[in-house]
Amino acid sequence: MLMKSKTKTERENQMLKRAELVLPQGSLGNLPYETIISHGKGSHIWDESGNEYVDYLLGSGPMIVGHAHPKVTEAVLSQIDSGTTFFATNEKAISLAEEIVDAVPCAEKVRFCSTGSEATLYAMRTARAFRGRDKILKFEGGFHGMNDYALMSMSPTKSLEYPQAESDSAGIPASIAEEMLIAPFNNLEITTAIIETHHDELGGVIIEPFQRLIPPRKGFLEGLREITKHYEIPLIFDEVVTGFRFAYGGAQEYYGVEPDICTLGKAVAGGFPLTAVAGKDYLMDHFSSDSVEKENFMPQIGTLSGNPVACAAGLEVLSILKTPGIYESMFKTGMETMKALQSTFDDANIPAKVVGEPILFDVFFTDHDVYDYRTSILGNPSTLAKFNSVLLENGIFKGTTKFYFSTEHSEDDLKKTINAFEIASDRINN
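Predicted structure:
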């Protein structure tokens, strides 16, 4: 459903018409909003018609220190003056890798790439190379980018019997589904049974430790870690979203469970195309032709991998995130917003569940508890679309799902947001 923003100028309307001529569906494929963004500063963005919004999309997460942060901008401009890319090892990439190794519990070595889809692809390949097995277990509803293996049971339309996979996209060979096993998130019993049955076929297990918006139940990640360790199956945490967001050490620090490999992106890149695979030495050695036999070596080449401009931005973002009290502040603002959202709907007698963590959450319009993919789709999509549309009309910009929080969201932003919640609640009831 297309969501209409505030009043548009003729100039923005013409841009939309131009987009339809050269872009499929007239968009970049990310958001269904009929809005063209002009610029951003801090926690706010502006469209091409001059309308201002409090931004909870944050570029789908990377702008954790806000848009155009002066320290990040300064670092980027300084590096640009020294060169933009080299296709060669550079000091900024070394420094960022060192910082990741220091911060992230599972990280002993780092390999950079450019997108989350690349990172998860390489993480799965690394696990397979180590195990000498082909199959990967992932969790129904889990998002791991746009590679063929990731696009299995991400948003399935059929309730297939586990562990059968369902393709989410045209153009993917049917054989890919045969290499993916699917388990329900937060169900340790079924997951354990699948692993016990198929452990000798499994190359690895990949999971978002916080799946889209759904936190892990107590003991779930711990149990998954135990069973994968028992069978010596590499456990991959996809932390493209949660890395450096839930804590400086990511979700593995926040939840206290350490995987063998993780993927990083978004926050670590400062708004530039840079991601990473990080993991234990014995796994990451598969990227090194000097460390493994030829048949176990994984070549990895990327024109912009470890790009010094992106690394310079990432280093400055991480420096800002190390400021004492900064995570406490973001979580406080997020928690206040989370509570306000739930109480708004409770007071209006609208069936709704606010789900997530204070740093990242959204609302499901349902009476049911939401703890996995199949319970997440029980919500009312038309009510959610109306909610998002009213927020947009009232100067609150978010994705179709998810409120992301930054270091820059203020008390004034919170007041404006709560006011929009109240307007949305009235509109939903009327």
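Summary: The radius of gyration is 22 Å.
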